[in-house]
Amino acid sequence: MGTIHNKKRYGEVWPSYRIDYALKELYQLQKLIVLSGGWAWHFLSPDGHIEYKHAHDHKDIDIFVHPRNVAEVMCILLKNGFKKTWTRYDKLPSEENFRRYEKLMVIDEDKSFRITIDFFVREVPYRKVKGWNIVKPIFLLGLYSNIHSSDKCWAVQATLKLLDRQIDPLDREELITIPSRMENENLQQ
Fold first, then answer.
1. What are the pLDDT digits (tens) for 146-172?
2. Where do the domains of the chain lie?
3. Most buried residue among 84, 154, 173, 184 by CB atoms closer than 10 A?
4. Angle separating helix axes 37-44 and 154-164, nearest 10 degrees
5. Which of these CATH numbers, 3.30.460, 3.50.50, 3.30.420, 3.40.50, describes 9-188?
6. How many H helices and E strands in the chain?
């Protein structure tokens, strides 16, 4: 969702196989990582929700890894066929300890996709949600200024409003509800 936010495409859903395969990979890391970005919003959303593309970004998997868990997470990723991938950001000066891992998933001869894990080494505030470590929503919102780019997703916009009213976003329908036309116009501004 790093591209232009196109409200004409509201209603598009992520293919279920992408979600299923990504979850299979994530389960092996569950106790060692903190989920961020689209996957944090995924678990904060009500169970069984429709995977709308504009609700949360499942293009990649953003994780934070405490420095003490880095070696173990890297070993699991490499053992499961992930490879370190260089990005244009690797050459830029940054205080962020970042790396990217990718794995090509071949479903059949006509269908394949890449699972991309953006791996940040840092201790971050988190909470337990449905058995997963998730970046605390208030901190997660702050990451949209430098790490995450899809700040127009419905979950981000809904959480901003909920937290302004001091409402916990966990399991709130607003995180997965297509905004009304008036809200859509506000998102464009």
1. 666 666 788 888 999 999 999 999 999
2. 9-188
3. 154
4. 60
5. 3.30.460
6. 6, 7
